[in-house]
Design brief:
Blueprint: H1 5-28, E1 33-37, E2 40-43, H2 44-60, E3 65-68, E4 82-89, H3 91-96, E5 102-109, E6 112-120, E7 125-130, E8 135-137, E9 140-142, E10 154-157, H4 167-178, E11 183-185, H5 190-198, E12 204-208, H6 212-215, H7 218-224, E13 228-230, E14 243-247, H8 249-262, H9 265-269
Parallel strand pairs: 3-4, 10-11, 10-12
Antiparallel strand pairs: 1-2, 4-5, 5-6, 6-7, 7-8, 8-9, 12-14, 13-14
């Protein structure tokens, strides 16, 4: 049995059960919306889905650590085996009935991504990767795009919901990219955006103010699909650094250069 295949099996099981819960809340329109902070939504569906995921992981791997969006406050990644769980990435989309939201589950060990699984709930698209084994969509191999010229590229991004400290320059680079690409898209779920990079739907992606459970699984997908994932400095601190750039190698580097032109050194470093 391939290394981490049992973990992937458990992640798929947990994501599938969580998806059933999420769809039931969605179809019955019976969820309650609360706020953790400004524009920071949490619903009954988030809490119920997370409870299901954590229960399944703990039953299978009782000694593992877990960092989950709705129940964790930890700001560093342990050396031990640690699961990163986002029960609904795209809660605002879910709450408004906009059909892009995902379950994201990752396993990190010795501070490296080992396994990642993302389920886009509405289309039931299962994206997964095991380190060194490639990236897959519904068990079919996927790869980043081969586009090298930015004028033929499509870029994904997101707008932070509660940290608007970089907004002025963020809007400037958005406008700048509109003149130099075929388009910029904002689906509203970073894990899905990164999966789109891995599958070649987007050629690149950038955002700030993200959390580890937003990117911990899908970042591995991009890497295993042949892409590059870094922080805004071009370094490796993209999990907790709250700044991420991803893409095929050429478009990733194009975005890094664009960021350097539009943000101060302090803003890039974070």
């Amino acid at each position: 049995m391939a290394e981490y295949s049992e973990e992937l099996k458990i992640a798929k099981k947990a994501a599938g059960k969580a998806s059933e819960i999420i769809k039931e809340f969605r179809d019955n329109h019976n969820f309650e919306i609360n706020f953790k902070g400004k524009n920071d939504l949490v619903t009954d569906a988030d809490l119920a889905a997370e409870e299901m995921i954590l229960s399944i992981i703990r039953d299978a791997f009782p000694d593992d650590r877990i960092l989950a969006e709705e129940s964790s406050t930890q700001k560093v990644l342990p050396e031990e085996r640690t699961w990163l769980v986002d029960p609904i990435d795209g809660t605002t989309n879910f709450a408004h009935g906009f059909p892009v939201f995902c379950v994201s589950i990752a396993l990190w060990e010795k501070q490296e991504a080992r396994m990642g699984l993302i389920l886009e709930v509405n289309k039931q698209e299962y994206f997964h990767a095991i380190k060194g084994k490639g990236a897959y969509l519904n068990n079919d191999p996927i790869h980043v795009s081969s586009i090298e010229d930015s004028q033929y590229s499509m870029i994904g991004t997101g707008f932070p919901y509660n940290d608007l400290s970089l907004l002025q320059n963020y809007l400037r680079i958005f406008e700048w990219l509109l003149h130099r690409t075929q388009g910029v898209r904002r689906p509203g779920a970073a894990s899905y955006d990164l999966c789109c990079v891995a599958a070649g739907r987007f050629d690149g992606f950038y955002e700030y103010a993200l959390n580890p459970w937003d990117v911990g699984a899908a970042g591995l997908l991009v890497q295993e699909a042949g892409g590059k994932v870094t922080d805004w400095q071009g370094g490796s601190n993209w999990l907790f650094g709250r700044r991420i750039v991803a893409g095929n190698p050429e478009i990733h580097d194009f975005l890094i250069k664009a960021i350097r032109e539009h943000f101060t050194e302090a803003e890039i470093k974070g």
